[in-house]
C-alpha cells in the first residue's frame, strides 16, 4: 500500500497532503513487519509426465474448440513459452519426417523485448509436434484452428464464452488459461491438486526435465537458450546462425525418446535418476572402498595440464565439432595448445595461426569461429606464461603459497577425506584453512618440506573471520614503485595442550588433503608425542614439557626434509616418501633425544645472586630477622630458576616467574609488566614476549 501511494504521488502528485509527512517511520515499520509475516513465495509445480500425456490424449477426442485451447497449452509446454508470449504468434507451420513432426512458429515481441528493434523482430519458437505419446497433436491443433476460423492477427487465441459457446473479441488471459488447464487436468487425473498448477507451469515443465535429465545432459547455456534467454555474448552467433535451435531440439527429442522407452522418468526421486545414469552405474561399480588412498600429482590436476579445460570452452562461442577436432589431435590441454604452433598472440600477422587452424579443422574456419579460437589460444598462451613466471619468480619464503589447489579439486578431495575418515567430526572449526592446505601443495610441487609452526595451523572458520588486506609495495616492469595489497597470514593460538592438539590435527588433515602424507601416519606420530607428554616419569625426574614436544616435532621434520629432498611426490600404488621418512625417523635417537625426561629441580642449590642484583623485599625481611623482629625468611621458599634462566633481563628489569608456566593471572598482553615483573621469557639472552614453555628462543 505504501509503495502504491508513493507511486501515485510520483505520477499524479497529491495536493492536499505531503505524503512524506503522513507516512511516518512507525508506518514503515508496521508495513515491514506485515510483509515479513506474509506467506512465503511458492512457485507453481511443473506438470508430470502422466499429465502431459493426458493432455495429448485429449487432443484426439475433444471438440475443435477445446482442441484449440489444449493445443495452445501444449505448444506453450513443448516450446517452453509463456502464455502471454504465445498470444503474440504471427504464423505457424509443421514439418514431418520419419513419423515425427516439428512445429515452427514466429512471435512478434515478447515479455523481455524492451527496445524498438526487439519489438519489431520475429522470435522463433520450436516444439516437438509428436510430444511424449508419438501422436501428432500439432497437426490436430492447426486443423482445429482452421475449422474454428481462427487466425494469427492481433492475438493467437480469443477468449471462449461458455454462455454463447463461441469465441469473443478479446484475447484469452493467463488466468483464463489457468482455469482451462485445471479443468482439463481434473477430468483425466483423479488426485489432481489445482492450486499447485497454473499457466506458468507449462514453461517450467520441459526446462525442469532438462535439468533432471542425466542420460541426455543439457549445459546451463543450452537450458538458458531453451527458455528463450540469450547471453549477450551469444547474440551475434545466433543472429548469423540460421536455425540454431536444430542442435538444441535434437537433444530435446532424444530426451523425449528416453521418456517414451522408460529410460528416463522425470517424476522419479533424484537418487533413482542418479543411480540409473551411466555415470552413476559406473561410479557404483568402480567406487573405491572406504579408507582407500587418493594420490594424485598436483601438476596433472592444474588448469594448464587438465584435458577437460578446453572441452568445457563451448561457452565462449566455439562450436562443439571444432572442440572435438582439437581433442582428437591431442591438443586438449591448455599447455599443449599454447605451443601447438609457432605464433604469438601479440604478433600482428595471424596467418601462421590461420593455416594451423584450417589444417586442424580440415576445412576453412569461419570468421566468428576463428575469433573464438584466437581467444582460446590467447588464454592458453597467457596461462603458460603465468605458470612459467610463477615457477621462476617463486617467493623464497616457504610460508607463502604460490600454488593454490583448484576449487573443484579442493571440494572433491574434502568430500573423499570425509568419507575415508569417518571418526572425525568435520566442521569449519576442525577442517584446515585453505592457506594451510596450499602450503603443503606448494611443498609437494617444489619437493622441499619445511616446518609449519602450530600457530600457522589455523581452522577454516578462523581464516574466514580474519581475512584482511595489508598494504604492500612492489615494482612494475618499468621499475616504478606500486602500492598494492596482499592477504595477511592467519594465525591461531597453540599455547595449551588442547589447542596444540587441535592445531596438529588440522595439520594432519591438511597434509592428507595435499597428498604429501597420509593422515594415519602423521596422526600416529602426533598421538605418540602426546602420550609422552602425559606419561608419568620416575622419581627424581620431571614430566615432559610442551617445549620438549615442540622441539621433538621440529627435529622430525628437519630430518624428514633432508631425506625427502626433491622427491615428495609419488604415484600409486607406491607409498608416499614422507610417510616412509616419518616411520624411519620417529624412532631415531636424533629425534627422541628431545623427549628425555629432565631431573627434577626440587632441592637444587640456589643460583648465586648476580653482582648487579638490586635489594628485594625478601632481603629486607632477612634484615629484620637479624634484629629479632618479624619472621625469619625461609630460603627454601624462593623460586628455583632452571639452568640457563635468569630473574632479570638485560636491562636489569625483573621478570614474572608465574608467566613462564602460564600461572600468572595478569590479563595484559605479553611484554607488559604485572605486579611481579615483566611478561618476557626468562631464558638468558632470549627475553621474547612469550612464556618459557612456549618460546622457541629462535624465531
Describe the structure in your own words.
With 699 residues, this protein is mainly alpha-helical. It is built from 29 helices and 7 strands. Strands 1-2-3 form a 3-stranded antiparallel beta sheet. Helix 5 crosses helix 8, helix 21 crosses helix 23 (497-514) and helix 23 packs antiparallel against helix 24. The radius of gyration is 38 Å and the shape is elongated. This is C3H1-type domain-containing protein.
Descriptors for this entry?
699 residues; three-stranded antiparallel beta sheet; two-stranded antiparallel ribbon; 29 helices; elongated; mainly alpha; 7 strands
What's the topology here?
Elements lengths: L1 H10 L7 H4 L2 H12 L12 H10 L5 H15 L4 H4 L2 E9 L2 E9 L7 H4 L2 E7 L8 H11 L10 E4 L4 E6 L2 H15 L11 H13 L7 H7 L8 H5 L5 H16 L9 H7 L1 H8 L34 H9 L5 H5 L12 H11 L5 H26 L14 H14 L13 H13 L13 H6 L3 E7 L5 E7 L9 H18 L4 H16 L11 H18 L13 H9 L3 H4 L24 H10 L30 H4 L39
Antiparallel strand pairs: 1-2, 2-3, 4-5, 6-7
Helix pairs in contact: 4-5, 5-8, 5-10, 21-23, 23-24, 24-25, 25-26
